[in-house]
User: Which sequence fits this backbone?
């Protein structure tokens, strides 16, 4: 991706955009680590990980605003500015979904939940990390190997489908297997599940846009 930027008259806006995108993808890994820690009873460590995630989110917000300001200055071709804006905004939305998920995790950490629940959510989080990792690789190949970027973007789509199946399995379990839980935890668990699905969907949406960028002109 850095070479893709370089070919488009690399400047401050492009440097900042690349940084913003990579940070957004990093938040997914932080979320997965926090959920795994809670599943092991390490609530304090999980909250510290989420605090770190929120700090990353603040950096992302600052970078997004700066990138958009730089792009309005018009030092890049209009099509390049449009492409960068699309990628930045998509990954900013994804980071927002990660933040919403983390907030739900904090709330649920105060409730006694079956270990199986945290294990299942941890497995889903691992699938999200796979989606984000493949998306990062696709972005990195965007400049010097568009065919590989396109292939990797398809793998993001495949990984999203796996995450979606897991989402449906967990949602079914909320109704069938964990009915003994009180209504409030169930509501938060469902909200967490939905925000995690949104992470996968946004990764896939970004991968779709990469496929558009790699169509031979």
Assistant:
């Amino acid at each position: 991706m850095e070479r893709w930027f370089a070919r488009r008259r690399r400047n401050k806006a492009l440097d900042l955009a690349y940084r913003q995108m990579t940070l957004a993808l990093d938040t997914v890994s932080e979320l997965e680590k926090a959920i795994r820690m809670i599943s092991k009873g390490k609530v304090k460590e999980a909250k510290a990980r989420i605090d770190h995630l929120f700090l990353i989110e603040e950096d992302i917000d600052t970078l997004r605003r700066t990138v958009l300001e730089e792009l309005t200055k018009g030092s890049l071709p209009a099509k390049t500015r449009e492409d960068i804006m699309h990628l930045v905004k998509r990954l900013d939305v994804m980071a927002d979904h990660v933040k919403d998920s983390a907030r739900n995790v904090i709330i649920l950490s105060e409730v006694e939940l079956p270990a199986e629940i945290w294990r299942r959510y941890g497995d889903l989080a691992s699938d999200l990390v796979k989606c984000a990792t493949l998306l990062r690789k696709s972005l990195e190949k965007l400049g010097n190997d568009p065919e590989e970027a396109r292939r990797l973007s398809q793998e993001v789509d495949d990984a999203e489908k796996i995450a979606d199946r897991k989402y449906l399995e967990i949602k079914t379990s909320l109704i069938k297997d964990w009915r003994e839980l009180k209504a409030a935890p169930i509501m938060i668990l469902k909200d967490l599940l939905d925000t995690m699905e949104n992470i996968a969907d946004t990764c896939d949406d970004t991968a779709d846009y990469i496929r558009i960028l790699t169509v031979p002109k």
